């Protein structure tokens, strides 16, 4: 691979005698990966049912090297949200941010959702994942991936981080910033990135990165943690951005990152981690984990009550009738009916007025005195909490037919209710809803997600 001369010189200064090993690694096959969504299935369960050839990624608890990415992306299990296709080194940032159930987590540059879906799955339905991307088109892809993963407690926005900082100062327990960068770690996978690099090298991104990291740190509560990452090797975009933060915010300090034998140390800055493709299987990444000190007397409680607590709404009879089909508890104070669209908000309090693509779990729509449940709700459910399910084997041709939006004859399959709403599953993993009458299933799979 012919590298830009200026880039090669920078890598020579960074790697020294390892430069040739790095250049040789760029001629090896591109690594492909799959990360199991542990909100839906354990790794042991997935290994027992997977039809794919996989090997464990040794530094990611739920990561696997994948031999056939195309096959994995066209399988009913993918549409059930059991895994996310992701390059192995890109799995690292989310795995090294210590998210716990109940945390309020911000993913500031979240699209397309590889890191956000992992952060959300580790929340276990508690707390809140606030996922933002300044690009509205990319934010739409982010929303789809979060809903496919069945993450219920989300807010998805397309806002300038400056607007978020004004509204959420000191609010979040954990912040992840996978910053836009010159993408040097992508040269192997996407050689066209080298042409972009020639046009917009590291210098074009440094001001953006420095601004983002200050904004992210400003939204972090005392005692909270921030993880900054890039997929580039430039010290200007990596260690120098961290040094800039430490100089401007003395209440931030670097923390040790859970180690792995293949990780390289930061260039002139301890506790940072670099992933190089000649040292371990992956494309390349930089990570730094920081903690914000807690001021004396500062309230460390996660119960951040915002002004203007919501009042519970009275729900239409059709909504109550549908909710009776669910055996899981629902916090009525978090239900919100907004112009015939029903949501389960992630928190009881009113949120600031922003450019939201989603606030909480979109449950469905009230249409002429009837309730139509959403695709997002189906993906967030477990089959045992819905009144009636239809289970399809992944090899059953009806699984793909369902994903294509076709009407199905399911008269040979057992059901609890022989009429009305059904949760359609591949094995025990939801795909969407359908409506049953006389052994025929009317397909309610969301048209925008259909198998093409």
List the helices and strands and how they pair.
Elements: H1 5-15, H2 19-25, E1 33-36, H3 43-49, E2 54-56, E3 63-66, H4 69-72, H5 76-79, E4 83-85, H6 92-95, E5 104-107, H7 114-123, E6 128-132, H8 136-148, E7 154-157, H9 161-167, E8 172-178, H10 193-199, H11 202-218, E9 220-230, H12 239-248, E10 252-255, E11 264-265, E12 273-275, E13 285-292, H13 317-323, E14 335-338, E15 341-344, E16 356-359, E17 361-367, E18 370-373, H14 375-380, E19 389-392, H15 397-403, E20 408-409, E21 419-426, E22 429-437, E23 440-443
Helix pairs in contact: 9-11, 11-12
What does this entry look like structurally?
It is globular and about 70 Å long. It is α+β, with helices and mostly antiparallel strands and 452 residues long. It is built from 15 helices and 23 strands. The longest helix has 17 residues.
Terminal-residue CA separation: 35 Å
How many runs of DSSP E, i.e. beta strands?
23
Low-confidence stretches: none
- The SS-based structural class is alpha+beta
Helix content: 25-40%
Oligomeric grouping of the chains: single chain
Strand content: 15-25%
Average pLDDT over all residues = 95
What is the alpha-carbon Rg in Å?
23 Å
| Number of continuous helical runs | 15
